[in-house]
Specification:
This protein is an all-alpha fold and 51 residues long. The chain is rod-shaped.
Length: 51
């Protein structure tokens, strides 16, 4: 009885996919934050040079 209770892994796959998705989301947000600042700085430099 205890073996069958602990052997059930039905929700394990869903949890693993959720953790991978959360990790990917964190990485994407971090990259966009860093790139966004760099792009903003470059655009400000170009705008200043044009004026």
């Amino acid at each position: 009885m205890f073996r069958s209770f602990f052997a059930k892994e039905e929700g394990q796959g869903l949890v693993e996919y959720a953790l991978i998705l959360a990790l990917i989301a964190i990485v994407v947000i971090a990259v966009l934050t860093l790139l966004g600042k760099n792009v903003n700085n470059k655009l400000n430099t170009v705008a200043t040079a044009l004026n």
